Amino acid sequence: MLVLIGYVVVLGSVFGGYALMGGHFGALYQPLELLMIGGAAFGAFLAGNNRKTILATVKELLRVLRSSRHNKALYMDLLALLFLLLAKGRKDGMLALESEIENPANSALFQQYPRIQDEPGVVDFLCDYLRVIISGNANPFEVEALMDHEIETYRHEASVPAQALARVGDALPALGIVAAVLGVVNALASADQPPSVMGQMIAHAMVGTFLGVLLAYGFITPLSSLIEQKLAESAKMYEAIKVTLLASLNGYAPQLAVEFGRKVLYSTERPSFGELDAHVREVKAR
């Protein structure tokens, strides 16, 4: 929703200011300029990316209008699930977790947290490293290095749509200049026209530069930035799992291990020590 509000502010500020200075909106209505710029940008996007990147970008664009699902409640659910799993492993032995992680969709523990189950990548990451720990003889340093590599791979893969959009945003001002130059060429080819007609044709040509810059910095670049921010929020779930499991692997009790996971969260979504402690006590009581 904030995306749409931002776009309204951009359009209102630009065109509102233009109207206040006495500008005529008819001069800005140049569908052919928009066709040249938009078509060239779309064609460059198709030419510069493979099928996987194009599909991933479309998927992210469909998600971008939704509010962020990575909030305090989701992180609290994650930490509570981690506590339950580690507490069960500490009480009944880590082998007791095999029944939970082999089929998380049917696990009584995972079913308590449907929001976590809606994050299949997070569930797979958690279950994979619990399997490594259950197998025994897991070296904490080697496990940490492997987790770092996987999180880095996730970041790289998830950042591809943002990078693709950023490149389109960088190209749009230049494509606007291309459209403007073509408009000027067309105007100069009509040099036999009266000065008033020539002036109008050149003014129409300059709209191309305006559209290219506006689309780039008012629309496409903010989308790229928003996708990058959502990626950073989602990566925090992986990091919380990583430090919590490593703390448990190093011998910390489940309640202390989830405290490690709490500390890596952003301050805006991070529950306080008291909130997490109360939540864990409630989980234990259930």
Main traits of this protein?
elongated; mainly alpha; single chain; 286 residues; 13 helices
- The count of β-strands is 0
Strand content: under 5%
Count of alpha/pi helices:
13
Helix-strand topology string: HHHHHHHHHHHHH
Globally, the shape reads: elongated
What is the percent of helical residues?
A: over 70%
Report the span from N to C terminus.
Answer: 37 Å
Structural class: mainly alpha
Largest sheet: none
**Oligomeric state of the chains in view:** single chain
Domain module tally = 1
Radius of gyration: 27 Å
Regions with pLDDT < 50 over 5+ consecutive residues?
none
Please describe the topology of this protein.
Layout: H1 2-20, H2 31-48, H3 51-63, H4 72-92, H5 98-102, H6 108-111, H7 114-117, H8 120-134, H9 140-158, H10 160-188, H11 195-249, H12 254-263, H13 273-285
Helix pairs in contact: 2-10, 3-10, 4-11, 4-12, 4-13, 8-11, 9-11, 10-11, 11-12
Structure overview:
With 286 residues, the protein is mainly α. It has one domain (28-286). It is 79% helix and 0% strand. It has helices at residues 2-20, 31-48, 51-63, 72-92, 98-102, 108-111, 114-117, 120-134, 140-158, 160-188, 195-249, 254-263, 273-285. The longest helix is centred in the C-terminal third of the chain and has 55 residues, at 195-249. The radius of gyration is 27 Å and the shape is elongated.
